Amino acid sequence: MRLDKFLKVSRIIKRRSVAKEIADQGRITVNGRAAKSSSNVALGDQLIIKFGNKTETIKINKIIETTKKDEAEQMYEILDESYKEDFRKGVN
């Protein structure tokens, strides 16, 4: 399945066009390699997605062409979630 479609179907990203834009900006890696929106993903792949100040590491557990909301959560597992610290904190 294409990366952008997986992100939309799994509801990690709400719109496929947004998933495509993020991937094509180089903010997503699949198994340690930069991925384009057209990259194929498979069962067991590990994705690292950078959303502004948040970075999520996700493992693909299931690939389904169409899902309902409760099924979407079963498609992946969040392995790590980290936030960049706001550089303005601590500055008076």
Strand content: 25-35%
- What oligomeric arrangement do these chains adopt? single chain
Main pleated sheet: 5 strands, antiparallel
Shape: globular
CATH superfamily: RNA-binding S4 domain
CATH architecture: Roll
Unreliable residue runs? none
Radius of gyration: 14 Å
Average pLDDT rating? 90
* Number of helical elements: 3
The count of strands amounts to: 5
Task: Indicate the topology.
Elements: H1 3-9, H2 16-24, E1 28-30, E2 33-34, E3 46-51, E4 54-60, H3 69-72, E5 76-83
Antiparallel strand pairs: 1-2, 1-3, 3-4, 4-5
InterPro entries: RqcP, S4_RNA-bd, S4_RNA-bd_sf
Domain RNA-binding S4: 1-64
Family: Belongs to the RqcP family.
In short:
With 92 residues, this protein is of the alpha+beta class. The protein contains 3 helices and 5 strands, in the order ααββββαβ. A 5-stranded antiparallel sheet has the order 2-1-3-4-5.
Task: Describe the protein.
With 92 residues, this protein is of the alpha+beta class. It has one domain (3-83): RNA-binding S4 domain (Structural Genomics Hypothetical 15.5 Kd Protein In mrcA-pckA Intergenic Region, Chain A, Roll), CATH 3.10.290. It contains 3 helices and 5 strands. Strands 2-1-3-4-5 form a 5-stranded antiparallel sheet. The longest helix is centred in the N-terminal third of the chain and has 9 residues, at 16-24. The protein starts with a helix and ends in a 9-residue tail after the last strand. The mean pLDDT is 90.
